[in-house]
Amino acid sequence: MGKTSTAPDFTLDLHGCTLDQAHRRLDDGLIQAKAMGARLVLLITGKPRTVEAADRGEKRGAIRAKILDWLAAGPHGSDIAAVRPAQRRHGGEGALYLVLKRPR
Questions:
Q1: CATH entry 1.20.1290.10 includes domain 10-100
Q2: Do residues 21 and 78 make contact, with C-beta atoms less than 8 angstroms apart?
Q3: Per-residue DSSP letters for 51-68?
Q4: In terms of C-beta density within 10 A (0-12 exposed, 13-18 middle, 19 or more buried), how is residue 36 classed?
Q5: So what's the pLDDT on residue 2?
Q6: Where are the domains of the chain?
Q7: Above 70 in pLDDT, residue 71?
Q8: E strand residue ranges, 18-89
Q9: CA 32 and chain centroid, separation
Q10: Rounded to whole angstroms, how far apart are CA atoms 67 and 5?
Q11: Please, what is the Cα angle at 71 between 24 and 39, to 5 degrees?
Q12: Burial, 94: exposed, middle or buried (Cβ in 10 Å; 0-12, 13-18, 19+)?
């Protein structure tokens, strides 16, 4: 995956959701992305904040603080090959790329 050729197959925007909404949307979105055969998912989370600010459920940065735990503990963890920071044109610090494994 070259720097210039990175184009997401699927975009999942969690920015502005509550934690519960974001968690549900993450699961539903990954089900949809996998059904479509997507390999690169752009996950928009909002920018990370300090741990103190992200500690409370509704504060800014809370989704970003939880996302890796949700991915690791959720039903889609085994389908994810890599999690990478997004390029600036796709949201930079406010987004991540999820590289999905090829279906077997």
A1: no
A2: no
A3: HHHHSSTTSTTHHHHHHH
A4: exposed
A5: 43
A6: 10-100
A7: yes
A8: 40-44, 80-85
A9: 14
A10: 25
A11: 95
A12: middle
Residue listed under structure tokens 């500690």:
55
pTM of the model: 0.83
Reply yes or no on whether the pLDDT at 56 is more than 80: no
Rounded Cα–Cα distance for residues 44 and 24 (Å): 14
pLDDT surpasses 80 at 58? no
For residue 42, the model assigns a pLDDT of 97
How far is the C-alpha of 66 from the C-alpha of 4, rounded, in Å? 29
The span from the CA of 42 to the CA of 85, in Å, is 10
Q: Which helix (H) or strand (E) holds 34?
A: helix 19-35
What local confidence, expressed as pLDDT, does residue 16 receive?
86
- CA-based max dimension of the chain: 41
